[in-house]
């Protein structure tokens, strides 16, 4: 309940900021119809009045008819696009702030203020100011168009996904396992946005990749216990020669009935590793596959890892399934050769990329957001997932099926 209240306040704060900026522009812009302000207010009220209702009740539903989703999609598109616009304008204001403060401080001096006032009256300054305003207007229009087109594209491309292939070097890997392939899926989020038919399509795609083993790194459901049943029906068809394994994610715990969720996931053929390990064998050779439950607040990751390591008391390579990628350093320190994680959705809504870091809300929580990372000889792969957190939209971040080849 508290999370939803905070989410509502954050959304409405961004919307208020954007509305006030637009209202200021309308009041200062000459030539606009007198009704422009009323129209702007009406549009913002239309898209914001439903927000508390939607966030309070929407996520309690396990099914919505297609017509309801069609009605709600414009609401999602509006809030994604305007969030991007508000963040861009807010960032620009922060960058300008030191210069604005310095200018206003200088204007306190009478002689400087007199010279500036005189300069503002010159034809050259008026021409420059008009050009500057025109440039900013065109920039904001372009930004807005890009934001709405991008959000709409993310909404209509919900079935798009990428198949990513990576080769991972594992120190001490037995000769028999060189070229061994691991298919990776994550963050299914069985829900009204990821129904049985959607999940079955992904299962068919993964089966068609013919990997030696498959792992699913948590968040099988979104938040409701009953969401595990369509998941189990779809994923009962997932097959690999050396088995299908998984670990629990934080959304599986949100159900408040994680043991039932785990039982149904296990029964459908996804063998859960809950702070334990198995040996994946080829003849006399093997590597250790470890898995830990989701590590929540006020929990020590080392305790979870050590429980799993107790089932792997040997010097063979160790691969870890851990839903959140936050604990890569601890895994490396404990001699884990490869950690497989999800949780971040690759950012899900990505505004851009700086070097390898997606600019997204997920990047605020972890420097490991998407793809392959290394610390020394230890590897981490973070899968983008196939499901959704919050709204059913991905921007610059398609769903992902991963094939990892061991070397």
From the structure above, extract its key features:
single chain; 407 residues; Purple Acid Phosphatase, chain A, domain 2; 2 domains; 6-stranded mixed beta sheet; 12 helices
The computed structural class is alpha/beta
The number of distinct helices, counting runs of at least 4 residues, comes to 12
Backbone shape = elongated
Number of domains: 2
Number of strands: 14
CATH superfamily of the largest domain: Metallo-dependent phosphatases
- The level 1 CATH classification of the largest domain is Alpha Beta
Q: Strand fraction band?
A: 15-25%
N-C termini distance: 47 Å
Level-2 CATH architecture of the largest domain: 4-Layer Sandwich
Calculate the mean pLDDT score and round it: 88
- Share of residues in helices: 40-55%
CATH topology of the largest domain: Purple Acid Phosphatase, chain A, domain 2
Strand order of the largest sheet: 1-14-2-3-4-5
Order of helices and strands: HHHHHHEEHEHEHHEEEHEHEEEEEE
Specify the biggest β-sheet: 6 strands, mixed
User: Ranges with pLDDT <50 over ≥5 residues?
Assistant: none
**Rg, nearest Å:** 26 Å
Short description:
The chain has 407 residues and is an alpha/beta fold. Helix content is 45%, strand content 16%.
Structure report:
The chain is of the alpha/beta class and 407 residues long. The chain has two domains: 2-156, no CATH class; 161-406, 4-Layer Sandwich (Purple Acid Phosphatase, chain A, domain 2), CATH 3.60.21.10. Helices cover 45% and strands 16% of the residues. It has a six-stranded mixed sheet, with helices on one face. A hairpin with a 2-residue loop joins β6 and β7. α1 (2-28) runs antiparallel to α3, α1 crosses α4 (66-106) and α8 (228-235) packs parallel to α10 (258-267).
């Amino acid at each position: 309940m508290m999370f939803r209240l905070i989410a509502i306040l954050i959304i409405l704060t961004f919307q208020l900021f954007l509305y006030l900026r637009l209202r200021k522009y309308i009041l200062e812009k000459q030539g606009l119809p007198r009704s422009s302000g009323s129209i702007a207010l009406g549009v913002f009220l239309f898209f914001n009045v439903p927000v508390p209702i939607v966030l309070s009740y929407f996520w309690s539903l396990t099914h919505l008819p297609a017509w309801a989703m069609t009605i709600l999609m414009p609401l999602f598109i509006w809030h994604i696009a305007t969030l991007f616009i508000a963040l861009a304008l807010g960032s620009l204001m922060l960058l300008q702030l030191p210069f604005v403060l310095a200018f206003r401080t200088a204007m306190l001096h009478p002689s400087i203020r007199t010279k500036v006032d005189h300069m503002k009256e010159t034809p050259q300054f008026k021409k420059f100011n008009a050009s500057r305003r025109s440039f900013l207007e065109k920039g904001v229009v372009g930004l807005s168009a890009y934001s709405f087109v991008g959000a709409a594209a993310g909404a209509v491309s919900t079935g798009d996904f990428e198949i990513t292939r990576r080769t991972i070097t594992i120190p001490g890997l037995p000769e028999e396992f060189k070229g061994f392939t691991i298919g990776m899926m994550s963050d299914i989020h069985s829900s009204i946005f990821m129904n049985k038919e959607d999940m079955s399509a992904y299962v068919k795609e993964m089966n068609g990749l013919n990997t030696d083993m498959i792992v699913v790194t948590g968040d099988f459901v979104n938040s409701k216990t009953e969401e595990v049943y369509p998941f189990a029906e779809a994923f009962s068809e997932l097959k690999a020669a050396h088995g299908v394994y998984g670990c629990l994610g934080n959304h599986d715990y949100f159900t408040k009935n994680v043991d039932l969720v785990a039982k149904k996931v296990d029964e459908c053929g996804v063998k859960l590793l809950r702070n334990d390990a198995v040996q994946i064998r080829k003849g006399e050779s093997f590597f250790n596959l470890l898995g830990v439950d989701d590590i929540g607040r006020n929990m020590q990751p080392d305790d979870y890892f050590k429980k799993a390591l107790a089932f792997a008391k040997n010097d063979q390579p160790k691969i870890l399934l851990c839903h959140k990628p936050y604990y890569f350093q601890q895994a490396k320190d404990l001699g884990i050769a490869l950690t497989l994680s999800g949780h971040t959705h690759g950012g899900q809504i990505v505004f851009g990329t700086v070097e390898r870091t997606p600019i997204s809300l997920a990047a605020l929580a972890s420097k490991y957001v998407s793809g392959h990372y290394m610390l020394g000889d230890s590897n981490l792969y973070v899968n983008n997932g196939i499901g959704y957190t919050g709204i059913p939209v991905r921007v610059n971040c398609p769903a992902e099926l991963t094939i990892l080849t061991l070397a």
